[in-house]
């Protein structure tokens, strides 16, 4: 559809109409255009008197400019010849402080981009982080940049177990396997379920936390059974005990037959999802008088 293609092209051009703001830097002549499309890349050159440890690169996407290699331009010092002794000391102090601390050694955390031979980490230096082994994921930012002030632009990330969360459950659902005071389950953890006596389990009786942080099956629920009112009357019969106004699912009531009658079916009626289930029949005994003592 040509109209859709033209609209998409217009959206991309508008998204990249404003160039990224890089202080003390300009887009190189080789990558400068009047209009940019998705996939176009631009490079930045630092102004005179400024430098960058990396080539600053951005790429145009359908949403906006995205950094491929983010950096900044900082003032360069070329000579000590015109510095007084005190200024040289000040400059040496600046140089010595313009380094970032190396990341701590953490088991399972892989760091790429560290300088060789334990050289200091200078401004604009980039480190990338990832986690080893299954069941682990990075908690934090994966790419860090050393700033001009000797501080990293984000805290160092850590590796933590990929985990599953336990959300809101049916009020009549009982769970076995929940650790005390913890709503997060590690990979491989299993939960087992059952419902109260008045409810039926709908779904899996057991679920397991997978490496992707998801459960292998959705949480089960419990059916909603209706209660019953007073038990119904039975011809030539009565309930054995006094009755209640309301009975829960699976509760039952026992019946007895009246004088001179014998029970051929029964003696119980059971409340099942709001209905009384069970046949009660009382037959009159031949030759027996209900009026006799």
From TrEMBL:
Assigned keywords, A-Z: Disulfide bond, Signal, Sushi
Disulfide bonds: 46-73, 195-222, 228-271
Database matches in PROSITE patterns: SUSHI
Cross-referenced CDD domains: CCP (cd00033)
Transmembrane segments: none
UniProt cross-references to SMART domains, sorted A to Z: CCP
Keyword Disulfide bond tagged: yes
Signal in keyword set: yes
Span of domain Sushi: 14-75, 98-161, 174-224, 226-284
Superkingdom of the source species: Eukaryota
Residues of the signal peptide: 1-18
UniProt subcellular location: Virion
Listed InterPro entries: ComplSys_Reg/VirEntry_Med, Sushi/SCR/CCP_sf, Sushi_SCR_CCP_dom
Listed name of the protein: Sushi domain-containing protein
Taxonomic lineage of the native organism: Eukaryota, Metazoa, Chordata, Craniata, Vertebrata
């Amino acid at each position: 559809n040509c109209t859709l293609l033209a609209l998409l092209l217009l959206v991309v051009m508008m998204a990249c109409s404003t160039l990224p703001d890089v202080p003390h830097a300009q887009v190189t002549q080789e990558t400068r255009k009047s209009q940019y499309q998705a996939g176009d890349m631009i490079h930045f050159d630092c102004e005179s008197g400024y430098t960058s440890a990396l080539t600053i690169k951005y790429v145009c996407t359908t949403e906006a400019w995205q950094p491929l290699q983010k950096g900044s331009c900082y003032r360069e010092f070329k000579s000590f010849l015109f510095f007084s002794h005190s200024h040289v000391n000040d400059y040496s102090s600046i140089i010595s402080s313009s380094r970032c601390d190396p990341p701590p050694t953490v088991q399972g955390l892989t760091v790429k981009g560290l300088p060789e031979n334990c050289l200091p980490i200078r401004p604009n230096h980039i480190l990338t982080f990832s986690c080893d082994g299954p069941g682990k994921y990075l908690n934090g930012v994966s790419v860090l940049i050393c700033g001009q002030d000797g501080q990293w632009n984000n805290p160092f990330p850590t590796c933590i177990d990929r985990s599953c969360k336990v959300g809101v459950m049916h009020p009549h659902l009982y769970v076995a396997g929940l650790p005390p005071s913890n709503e997060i389950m590690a990979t491989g953890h299993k939960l087992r379920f059952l419902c109260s006596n008045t409810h039926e389990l709908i779904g899996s009786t057991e679920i397991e936390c997978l490496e992707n942080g998801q459960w292998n099956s959705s949480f089960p629920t419990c059916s909603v059974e209706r209660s019953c009112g007073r038990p119904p009357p039975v011809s030539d019969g009565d309930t054995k005990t006094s009755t209640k106004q309301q009975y829960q699912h699976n509760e039952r009531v026992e019946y007895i037959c009246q004088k001179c009658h014998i029970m051929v079916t029964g003696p119980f009626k059971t409340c099942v999802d709001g209905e009384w289930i069970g046949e009660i029949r009382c037959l009159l005994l031949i030759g027996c008088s209900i009026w006799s003592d």
